[in-house]
Design goal:
The chain is an alpha+beta fold. The chain is built from two helices and two strands. The longest helix has 13 residues.
Length: about 100
């Protein structure tokens, strides 16, 4: 858990802000798992910080839910096009670019 927390902090995953009275706080929780080797012996402990969606309130926190997920076949197709067209791959910021609304 300590390593996971430090990695999240190092990558600037969140920004600590003061709580607004009009905002519902979505709780978070830690999930703990064990990772095993093929022979069944314990490899390592895993920890993951997740948002507890059950603490969201309809209309206050969300009107509809949508989770954009890319299928592996789509990623393979795009990579094939990049390779076949000898295109220089680039990366970009697509998560919350220039968001002006309260998140």
């Amino acid at each position: 858990m300590y390593d996971e927390y430090n990695a999240l902090d190092k990558n600037d995953t969140w920004l600590l802000v003061s709580r607004l009275a009009c905002v519902n706080m979505v709780r978070s929780m830690w999930l703990f798992k064990h990772k095993f080797h093929a022979n069944g012996t314990l490899s390592r402990y895993k920890a993951c910080l997740v948002a507890n969606g059950s603490s969201q309130q309809l209309v206050v926190d969300f009107n509809e839910t949508f989770s954009p997920v890319v299928k592996p076949a789509t990623i393979r197709t795009v990579l094939r096009l990049v390779v076949s067209q000898t295109i220089e791959p680039q990366s970009l910021q697509f998560l919350l670019p220039g968001t002006s609304e309260l998140v």
